[in-house]
Every structure is written in structure tokens, then in C-alpha cells.
Design brief:
This protein is α/β, with parallel strands linked by helices. It contains five helices and five strands; from the N terminus they run E-E-H-E-H-E-H-H-E-H. The protein has a five-stranded mixed beta sheet, with helices on both faces. A hairpin with a 2-residue loop joins strand 1 and strand 2. The termini are far apart.
């Protein structure tokens, strides 16, 4: 999995590419979220446009990241899930737990 981070104003945007699964070190995403929050930027948007696959471990990492952001008085939101990833988010109940947007601009404006 490739992870890149960019800033849009005071919001950290994490772009994921590849697979958010155990075998490919999904924990790296949580480490990046911790680093961003530790640096004083608790507003995080995860862009899933290029995310191909996600397993239950990856879902767990998203939940853990969301809870960590919330516990740090921050917000973690998700944008652009593919049809497959959207289905997983729906089945797992994450669509009701966290804010999921269809466009990055709408997601950024929601902060």
C-alpha cells in the first residue's frame, strides 16, 4: 500500500493507493494518523479513490484511526470510496459511524 500525505489548509489529506490489508501493513495507516495528530493537526481526510481492496483488518484500522482522532478532539472523514470499498463500509456499519463523502471538495468543506 502506498500512503501519501498532503495539506489542504489545516486539514491533512491521506491518499491511499493499493490494498488496506493485514499482509500489506495496514498498521502503517494508523501510524500516519498518530503522527498527524501528534503534530497538532487533528483534522484528517482519508482519500480512498485508489484503494483497491480492504479486508476486516483494514476496516479495524479505519475504526481505530477514527476513534483515535475523535479521542484527540479531532475529526477523521473519508472520501471517494470505490464501489467495492463502499460496500464493505456499509456491511461493516462504518457508513453510519464516520462521515463518508463522494467528493474531496465536499468533504473538505465539511470541516
Amino acid at each position: 500500500m502506498e500512503i501519501s500525505i498532503r495539506s489542504v489548509g489545516n486539514i491533512a489529506v491521506i491518499d491511499l493507493e493499493g490494498n488496506l490489508i493485514l499482509r500489506e501493513n495496514a498498521d502503517e495507516l494508523f501510524e500516519k494518523v498518530q503522527q498527524i495528530i501528534g503534530s497538532g493537526s487533528p483534522q484528517i481526510l482519508i482519500n480512498l479513490t485508489q484503494l483497491i481492496r480492504m479486508d476486516s483488518y483494514g476496516i479495524g484500522v479505519l475504526i481505530k484511526s477514527f476513534k483515535h482522532a475523535k479521542g484527540s478532539n479531532g475529526h477523521l472523514k473519508v472520501t471517494n470510496p470505490t464501489a467495492f470499498v463502499r460496500q464493505l463500509l456499509t456491511i461493516s456499519g462504518l457508513m453510519t459511524l464516520m462521515e463518508v463523502f463522494d467528493s474531496e471538495s465536499t468533504a473538505l468543506a465539511s470541516f
